[in-house]
Amino acid sequence: MMPRRAGNPSRRFGDSKSKTSPVLSIGLIVVGGLFLIGYLYRGSGGHGSRIDSVSKVEGDYLCSGEVQRAIPTLQKTYGDSMHKVLHVGPDTCYVVSKLKREDETEAWGVEPYDIEDVDSSCKSLIRRGSVRVADVKFPLPYRPKSFSLVIVSDTLDYLSPRYLNKTLPDLVRVSSDGLVIFTGIPTNQKAKVADVSKFGRAAKMRSSSWWVKFFLQNNLEENEAVNKKFEEASTKSSYVPRCQIFHLKSLH
Ligand SMILES: *[C@@H]1O[C@H](CO)[C@@H](O)[C@H](O)[C@H]1NC(C)=O
């Protein structure tokens, strides 16, 4: 086979069947190139992925977007206790960036899921250690009361009670002035199907009475004074939350 090809190249090129094959190859290269360009553009962190992440904030991870909306109200409620904040939840880079823009607020983030296409500002937050990717089913790598306030969004909706039993007290452990929980509202069925493939488990939106019972079982106490303050601040600024928000006390 080899000798025949090498031995008679002119015959091959003269053959009509062979003539079409370079054209076909070029066509395939062009199509392949277009796919490659499309693929690279998608993951480039440019305009396309920015739109992607905005829709994530608005869609899949409703409550991480909600944390961003709630920052002014949280400021009014917690005041000085907002000086050292840990946010735990998907899209934490956006929440951390937004918190860092506040005066006298230092912020860190824990991203509970693998991040695929992150933009350059998120990459730099990760590089500087402001944001880390960590599985929240395991104890958080922080000492007790490392943060004045801990805010968790969406994440708890993906945990079964077995893991919640460990994760929730651990979030309380690393806070000194409180834990704020943003969790989905049971009637909000948005984007659950897409989430299953990514997180291996569908979000389960629990009712407010389910959560209250769960807090009691785990000896976690809601902060009634803060609840009241937050409600007043919300009313004043016409802020209507799209997630359930709970305020828990830190341990003493
Ligand atoms: C979670 O903890 C509570 C209180 O300690 C206990 O009653 C409950 O059975 C635990 N649930 C699971 C699924 O481990």
Automatic annotation (TrEMBL):
Region (Disordered), start-end ranges: 1-20
InterPro entries: CGR2/3, SAM-dependent_MTases_sf
Ranges annotated as spanning the membrane: 21-41
Alphabetized UniProt keyword annotations: Membrane, Transmembrane, Transmembrane helix
GO molecular function annotations of the record: methyltransferase activity
Domain of life: Eukaryota
Swiss-Prot/TrEMBL GO biological process terms: pectin metabolic process
Signal peptide residues on this chain, from the entry's feature table: none
PANTHER family attached to this UniProt entry: PROTEIN, PUTATIVE-RELATED (PTHR34208:SF15), S-ADENOSYL-L-METHIONINE-DEPENDENT METHYLTRANSFERASE-RELATED (PTHR34208)
Official protein name in the record: Probable pectin methylesterase CGR2
Organism: Cicer arietinum
Taxonomic placement: Eukaryota, Viridiplantae, Streptophyta, Embryophyta, Tracheophyta
Gene: LOC101492549
